[in-house]
Every structure is written in structure tokens, then in C-alpha cells.
Amino acid sequence: MTHLTLAEVESLARAAHAGQTDKAGRPYAEHLAAVAEGVRARGGDPEQIAAAWLHDSVEDAALSEEWLGTAALTARTKAVVRALTKRPGEEPEAYARRILATPGALLVKEADLAHNADPRRLAVLDAPTRKRLTEKYARMRALLGLDPEQVPGSKPVPEPEPGA
After folding, report:
1. Is residue 158 part of a domain?
2. Which is nearest to 62 in space by CA: 17, 21, 29, 20?
3. What one-character-per-residue DSSP string does 13-81 give?
4. Is residue 1 part of a domain?
């Protein structure tokens, strides 16, 4: 079977999420592009980049599980998308265990969390939402064993040394 190219996966993901916006009202495709770029920048391979483009597609009902099952994607890409798809009522601990047990999924989730926790994205939200999401993302990073200092804006900027 010939698999979809990354350009085809990107086009498909953009079309599937067309009209959707994030919590700040921005086009949802911006988030997908940022996660895909984050995966690439972290050394991810094409299968992980494809999964980044599709990571929210089944969860958000932009694409169905049936579609994913028959899509011209590698088994690994499908496994990563499934691992990153939160299930209704699922506890964060179970979600984290599934991500950790799926080869390639942690890198995609790390890129997703990094973009979600970007202070520039959070800054446009109201204070209670910003606080709730910041705590949610920090908890997931902890469950996944990710270094909290890797989250943009979570590490204080050091003061310049006197005389420097």
C-alpha cells in the first residue's frame, strides 16, 4: 500500500478541522501546524509528524476511528494517533500510560503540550481558564515524566549578573 505523503496528511488535517477554532478563537490548523513543527524540531520522523497533524482528529470528531482504521497511513502513525486520542471519562493517568506505552507517541504529546502551554497562547485567555489549563498541562507533563523546565515560559528568566 502506498501511504499518504506528509503534504497529503497536512492537507487532509487542515480540511478536516476547517472552521474549527482553538480556545482563543484562532484557526485550529495553526495548532496542528505548530505541533507538527514542534515534532520536526525535536527530531521526530515522518510518521510522528503525520501523527502530529492528525493527533486531535478522532478526538475532535474531525475524522472517524473507522477512517483512521482504513487510512493509507503506517501502523505506527495510526497507533500514535490512537494513543493521543483521549477517551470519554478517561483518567489522566490511564491516558499517560497509553502514551508512554506507544512508541513515538511521547514526542508528539510533548510538542502538543509545549504549544498548548505557550504563554503567548495562554495570555489571551481569561485568568481562570489560563490557570486551569496551566495546571492541567503541568500535571500531564509530570505524569509523562517530562521536564517542567522545557515548557516555554515555565522557567524564570535569570537576572543579569551585576556588572554584566
Report:
1. no
2. 17
3. HHHHTTT-B-TTS-BHHHHHHHHHHHHHHTT--HHHHHHHHHTTTTTTTSS-HHHHHHSSS-HHHHHHH
4. no
CATH of the domain at 14: 1.10.3210.10
What is the reported pTM? 0.88
Q: What DSSP state is assigned to residue 148? A: G
- Residue 141 located in a structural domain: yes
How many Cα atoms occupy the beta-carbon half-sphere of 46 within 13 Å? 10
Domain of 37? 6-150
**Please, what is the end-to-end C-alpha distance for the chain in angstroms?**
60
Per-residue pLDDT reduced to its tens digit, 85-114: 999 999 999 999 999 999 999 999 999 999
Total of domains in the chain: 1
C-alpha cell of residue 24: 482563543
